[in-house]
């Protein structure tokens, strides 16, 4: 086991006895993210991702500096966060990233248990742009079953035409008729 990996494991173990890492320990973990050895990177990532929102924000700020395989790992690893920052970040990344990374981000976001629907809805508009197309792919990947309840709370479904295109007239009509029958 490498010296770096051993030190990271000790830092992880030390969190059983203290609430947070010191700034120097966090800096050390970030330095380990630059190591070529995957085991060191993974251990550093888990240490960082389990920390505060501010530390995760710092990770997201340097996301673009990592090779694609590590970007994939970071993206999938942050899909269990209980705070909003990673989801906002990856929704914004869909605007500018290449198609391969966008496809991976869409898969990760669609599998997340975080309630993304309001975030996605706030980013939708009537334009047909590559970003809007990616948001629609994300909604389709999340699926009608998960979106049915959030859609049913609206008296008038926002972006109704988009949802009809994604899920069909029958599905949207069923939501609207159930709203009027209750």
Describe the structure.
The chain is mainly α and about 180 residues long. Helices cover about 70% and strands about 0% of the residues. The chain is built from 12 helices and no strands. α7 runs parallel beside α9. About 20% of the residues are buried. The mean pLDDT is about 90.
Give a short overview.
The chain is mainly α. Helix content is 70%, strand content 0%.
| SSE order | HHHHHHHHHHHH
DSSP summary, beta strand count = 0
Assign the structural class, choosing from mainly alpha, mainly beta, alpha/beta, alpha+beta, or little secondary structure.
mainly alpha
* Spans of at least 5 consecutive residues with low confidence: none
Coarse shape: elongated
Count the DSSP helices.
12
Sheet with the most strands? none
Distance between the termini: 63 Å
Proportion of helical residues: 55-70%
Using brief descriptors, characterize the structure shown.
182 residues, elongated, 12 helices, mainly alpha
Task: Draw up the topology in text.
Blueprint: H1 3-14, H2 23-32, H3 38-49, H4 53-61, H5 68-77, H6 85-96, H7 99-111, H8 117-123, H9 130-142, H10 144-152, H11 160-167, H12 169-180
Helix pairs in contact: 1-3, 2-3, 5-7, 6-7, 6-9, 7-9, 10-12, 11-12
